[in-house]
Amino acid sequence: MSDASDLVRYELRGEVAILGLNRPDKRNAISDRFVEAIAEAVARATREAEAGVIHGHGKHFCAGLDLSEHSQKPLFEAVLGSRRWHSAFDSIERGRIPFVSAISGAAVGGGFELAASTHIRVAEEGAFFALPEGQRGIFVGGGGSVRIARLIGPARMGDMMLTGRSVSATEMERWGGVSYVVEPGKALERGIEIAARMAQNAEFTNYAVINALPRIADMSSEDGLFAESMVASLATMTPEAQERLRDFLEKRAEKVKAPDA
Ligand code: 1HE
User: Fold this and answer.
1) Which terminus in the chain has less CB density within 10 A, N or C?
2) Which InterPro entries has this protein been placed in (predicted)?
3) Would you call 69 a catalytic residue per the annotation?
4) What secondary structure letter does DSSP report for 177?
5) What span, in angstroms and rounded, lies between the C-alpha atoms of 220 and 256?
6) What is d(CA 168, CA 198) in angstroms, rounded to the nearest whole number?
7) Three-state DSSP state, 168
8) CA 186/CA 200 separation, integer angstroms
9) Domain check: are 157 and 67 in the same one?
10) Which residue has the higher pLDDT, 2 or 172?
11) What pLDDT score was predicted for residue 5?
12) 186 and 154 assigned to the same domain
């Protein structure tokens, strides 16, 4: 195990980079230094791995913005600070490799925003999500108004921000904000399994999934269909696709299995 920084532990396991938020005494609350450590660890994972997992050391995934730092910031510093979160989380959402977040305990405020920038969310029974910005007198600033609103819908996000209520992992799964709910203590293990599986995909396809899909979702249907044809044709032309297609036709590749097989 080597550290990209003491705030984010970094481990490369095969082709999977495991990023552990490591400020458990403050419930992994994200300070300015912490945002930079996340950005550095993501950049390293993007260079060295084919997929990544983000999890929290201690009982909680992440308690969001470090409120002790935030309360003292001048206006323009706050704007630039929010933009640094955007840049760090963009490098996750629209980078080169897919990321899973493995969530236990609280994913609150900016912690939920971080999870929303990953491509797959695995949450343990007992994990919970909240947006207490209303109670704190602030607003989401880590990309939540875009990413969380698109993930679960602006009405549900508005409900969470207005009421400050906590949403369980199973309810969040019903809302589409979580893809897998697992037993307590199992999120990281499952997250690593999922990442290892994604790491076996063709790298161009992974790149296209994470970069083309959200952009196409922002386009008109006409533009989206046109863009899809372009990306699909480019993908097929990669040598990796040619080899993988040949492997299937010559019976060397795995078949698709039924879910219960
Ligand atoms: C913190 C933070 C924090 C904990 N900033 N220090 N986020 C919030 O409003 C969530 C605030 N946190 C909580 O509600 C709770 O801490 C938890 C539910 C996450 C965990 O509870 P618990 O009982 O395990 O821990 P604790 O005793 O509340 O906290 C332990 C320590 O962490 C304590 O410090 P200590 O010096 O007294 O030991 C807490 O003060 C500290 N701590 N959370 C700073 N967030 C880009 S915009 C995003 C906008 C937002 O993220 S708003 C949501 C902010």
Assistant:
1) C
2) ClpP/crotonase-like_dom_sf, Enoyl-CoA_hydra/iso, Enoyl-CoA_hydra_C
3) no
4) S
5) 32
6) 27
7) strand
8) 22
9) yes
10) 172
11) 60
12) yes
Region of 243 on the Ramachandran plot (φ > 0 left; ψ -120 to 50 alpha; else beta): alpha
Place of tokens 């994913």: 107
Cβ(66) – ligand 1 distance below 6 Å: yes
Tally the residues of the chain: 261
Q: Which domain holds residue 234?
A: 203-249
Q: Give 38-71 pLDDT, tens digit per residue.
A: 999 999 999 999 999 999 999 999 999 999 988 7
Q: Is 15 a catalytic residue?
A: no
DSSP secondary structure letter of residue 26:
G
* Nearest protein Cα to ligand 1, atom 41: 26
Residue 231: give its domain's CATH number.
Answer: 1.10.12.10
pLDDT, one tens digit per residue, over 5-26 is: 699 999 999 999 999 999 999 9
User: Would the CB of 140 count as within 6 Å of ligand 1?
Assistant: yes
Token pair of 53, please? 């997992």
pLDDT digits (tens, 9 = 90+) for 66-86: 999 887 889 999 999 999 999
Query: Of 46, 58, 57, which is closest to residue 16 (Cα–Cα)?
Result: 46
Whether residues 92 and 209 share a domain: the answer is no
Closest ligand 1 atom, residue 65 Cα: 51
Annotated catalytic residue, options 69, 113, 171, 228: 113
